[in-house]
Structure to design on (544 residues):
């Protein structure tokens, strides 16, 4: 298991499970987004505040490998690392593990950028600074 | 504010907010369901285990008064009381409060029953016993 | 079966079903909201446009009776009537039926109002006019 | 624009939009899943029926490039092609376009397999046959 710069513990909720009795694939993206936003908040960046200022942080690419499904009652944790990908892109490496035995659940890479008020790709300097300082 | 037999603390996640910047109405039902299932678990009743045995706990009526909207970043808690409504129905009284100032967010009443393997209304005796013991 | 002023046909999607193999309760609120917004659009009122102008149409109370569950593969339709409840409130009566046999699925009453830029209850005059003209 | 073996038209629903006023990233996975299940149904394969027989069709990897966001009121269509990836894996190539101008919204590749009653990777022969016959 890798080292992670940020971790968040969560718990499966029954309404997130589908007719197969396991967490629906799309829900993992919710888990990942929530973890990224909590991580950003932890380094002083408020996603909602940016959205209100019409600066939108957006995902441009996502890759997820599904290793093992979570089911009702499972506790899990999300590990996160980040790294600059280019002048205007950041990569988030986010993996999910079942808490009871640290069994890998998913491995994901998410590439994100920012869009300014005019809808053009652009990252606010203070965001770049915070993320770079944190880079793992 | 009333007394509650069971309480659960939660937190708004950004993906639960809609274009008005507030938690979407339907999401409160998710919060309420999750709280009921956690409550049931706390008294020894596992919703998913019942579902696997083809005994389905189902909601037959829901009433929700929306008092004040939650938004991104809000912490909140759900208070729950329950009371027998009839031989085969239970009522759950569930209210949500914003944690920072205990401002009322919603007040809800949910009527639930059970359906046995044949799809007929029926409550497992151990469920009735546990809920009655807990009745507020 | 009642007469309805507005009808919308929809179809259950598998991701809307939960571990019981039926549509999750909260999802019906999504169906009802989508139908209201489509209805409003049909009489010239765009929910999203209002939201952008900071005039928010909001639900203040919801009552739903769950009669029979929809499941994977089901087609269904939502019937809608509306009526003025007070100077600043409208009631929407929305029922869902399974299409194959018109079996009642849910019966719902939703009370809605508007909030102006200052967050005070208020209905734009053109909205009142359109809804009143339509009143069933 | 490519040729697609299967197409499905859909429409953005307001509850699918987030505080940025655009469709939330995770929702596209719902769109893609619904399209795959409709496609499978069109070639005689019922996802829910398989699930009831404890044969689970599961996604093992997903790659999505987000090109342009859908927003409230947008109509869109999903194009789908499929190809065998290995003895037990199939790839689905699914792209979403905004209907008004065929602007590309997302491009996705989804790798799926089947799990038999024992949870082991395995594709039912009739599924392989149907998908291979359809292969683009």
């Amino acid at each position: 298991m890798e080292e992670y710069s940020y971790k968040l513990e969560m718990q499966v909720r029954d309404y997130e499970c589908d007719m197969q009795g396991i967490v629906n694939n799309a829900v993992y993206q919710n888990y990942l987004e929530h973890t990224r936003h909590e991580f950003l908040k932890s380094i002083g960046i408020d996603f909602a505040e940016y959205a209100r200022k019409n600066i939108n942080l957006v995902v441009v690419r996502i890759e997820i490998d599904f290793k093992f499904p979570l089911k009702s009652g499972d506790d899990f944790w999300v590990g996160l690392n980040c790294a600059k990908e280019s002048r205007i892109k950041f990569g988030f490496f986010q993996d999910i593990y079942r808490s009871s035995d640290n069994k890998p659940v998913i491995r994901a890479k998410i590439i994100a950028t920012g869009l300014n008020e005019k809808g053009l790709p652009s990252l606010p300097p203070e965001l770049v600074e915070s993320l770079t300082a944190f880079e793992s």
